[in-house]
Amino acid sequence: MWRRAVAVRFAPQRRFFSTSESESESQTLYSFLQPSLFSPKPTPSPPRPQSPKTLQNPALEDLESALNTSLSTNNTDEAWKSFKALTTNSTFPSKSLTNSLITHLASLHDLYNLKRAFASAVFLLEKNPALLDFGTVQTLLGSMSSANTAAPAFALIKCMFKNRYFMPFHTWGSAIVEITRKNRSFVAFLRVFNENCRIAIDEKLEFMKPDLDACNVALEGCCHDLESVSEAEKVVEMMSVFGIRPDESSFGFLAYLYALKGLEEKIVELEGLMGGFGFSSKRVIYSYLINAYVKSGKLEYVSRTIFRSLREADEQGPNFSEETYCEVVKGFLKNGTIKDLASLIIEAQNLEASSMAVDRSIGYGIISACVSLGFLDKAHSILDEMNVQGVSVGLGVYVSILKAFSKEHRTAEAAQLVTEISSLGLQLDADCYDTLIEASMSSQDFQSAFSLFRDMREARLPDMKGSYLTIMTGLTENNRPELMAAFLDEIVEDPRIEVGTHDWNSIIHAFCKVGRLEDARRTLRRMIFLQFEPNDQTYLSLINGYASAEKYFSVLMLWNEVKRRISADGEKGVKFDHNLVDAFLYALVKGGFFDAVMQVVEKSQEMKIFVDKWRYKQAFMEVHKKLRVTKLRKRNIRKMEAVIAFKNWAGLNA
Predict the structure, then answer these.
(1) 653 CB contacts (<8 Å, ≥6 apart)?
(2) What is the pLDDT at residue 296?
(3) What predicted TM-score, i.e. pTM, was given to this entire model?
(4) Which of 31, 62, 140, 601 could serve as 106's disulfide partner, Cβ 3.0–4.6 Å?
């Protein structure tokens, strides 16, 4: 086909593009230009010939100087006025100034000045093309590509051809190709492409020969948009004339068209040609065939092509793109059933090499496509259908669904799916569990997080620290100490999880923070029963909790307990530091337990801990300002002595 000789000139052909399409393109161009520069108007009657007004040299020089100055100072509007004044009087600025103006206008990246640049370029092409540099046109087309303005770009190329302004294809072709792909304006591109080829042949201009990329865009337009075999084969003939070697995409576009039209013999011929050109892999052509069969609703041909690709593939698999898998899923869900998709995966598994990685399997591709399309429930249903038929897929297939569940915060369903996975004898890794547990905690779905952690323990994974910390941190941040306590109670004897005093402290602190002091005290007893040693932080949380609730007697009970546990070296027992001293003194003074206050003072002096007395003076004055020592002497001599000792120590007697 590519080797077949064709006539050097195009023979007269039936017009493939309709008049309405041409009119639509013109209207698009006018919408780009309106209302600033041009608007479509009725064709006026030819004006009587008039002698053009030409500027005298001094005026010309002044305008050119003004144009040059305006460009130098980036005064765009003044530069445009000077240019219009010159051209209105049939005079042109110098070539360098003309190109500088258009380049400046095109580089400003706003639509209004891009219109000015386009109008200037078209005007020069019509009136004096010799003034226009190739580089200026290239810059203008590049700006049009960035602005995604297709109609004026194609109009500019047509104007170039009309006025025999022939630029090397490589200077403008890539910009037009990019614009075409962005806008899928293949019809307009094909007109330009065909005209370019005609000129290159008629004028024998080698530099206007299109490149492979442009030929493939033309083929794509013929095959995907026009769905015209004759137009596609015309492009192929041009490639043969210019000696342009096709690539896999060239064959793929044609395969798509032939499959769409049911031309199976052409597909066989095409595959033979691929071998002749040295393409051993048919992966690309299979993808195009699948897309075409999906579009035409031929699901049996889709399955047949997938199975054929597997028979010819190595252990790497057919390696279809995500786009291809998405088309397969959409096609089967539109024209088939969940059961059909499950059957496709099952049959494919029978053909896949045992050494093939899970993420290269057909099942993985289809399930991942369901996920990316947002069909999570469909994906789950496919797996359920396979389980009904007694067939399972690799772990990687489930992971893609799990990740999607987590992303959408459907954590309960994720936890349920993990249970199903475990029942099939498959095992997730620690990272996967960590991700799922983190998603559950973020969604405050604590029960799912606990369920996942239980599965993790039952799977006997060695590294559980990350997930454990995620759960404990999340419960702390959400003020759920009762769940923290229950969770810790459940896992405390698991040797793989390192539970320490700080974990119990977190629970006690959380209970105290919300005023659940009995639960905090119960947690302390449980902690000691399990042989975890309370420390200064344990008691500090309890003291502050009791003080906030004005339960000062409970603070006194804590002091009696703590003074037995105080460690002199800080390595064993409770570290008696400034924070603990301050908390005890303040609460005990407020409670009026001065005997205990002086015990704390003596201990702090013994351990050389500095104490700021002012805070406790204030506490005494707030609560015990009216306390009379003489009255105490009659009732409780010991308490009286303790009050006197405190007042002497705090400097209150003065």
Answers:
(1) 644, 647
(2) 93
(3) 0.68
(4) 140
